[in-house]
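Quick one: structure tokens for this chain, please?
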Amino acid sequence: MSGLFACTSGEPGDPAETGDGASPDTGQVTGTLMYRERIALPPGAVAEVWLLDTSLADAPAVEIAYQKIGNPGNPPIPFVLDYDPSKIDERMQYGVRATISHDGQLLFTSDTHYPVLTRGAGNTAEVMLIMVDRDR
């Protein structure tokens, strides 16, 4: 697997959750996950957030960093992606993708590219998730 892997429990005070775990040689992308529906997530829900190299349109995105948040609570759901700055090429394009699932069933997903880090984008992303239509 390429890139960094950061997995958190979503517990308050977890270094990866609060951003306190970053070393001087680590970069961070931070932000929040949101969805429009006024519903609570079920206990045991899991939010997953990826920092991806999305430069090549005809190839799968390359994972740079990952965070798993157990029992994320209600939005806004904060995230912190710690990454190795040496993996970032200013000529390339990077973005954040996120999902929320429960018992292996996808509940919410991002359907928009949220650019970060290069090409004038900063290191924060406010990611709007859409509810997955399970009736199809």
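The radius of gyration is 15 Å.
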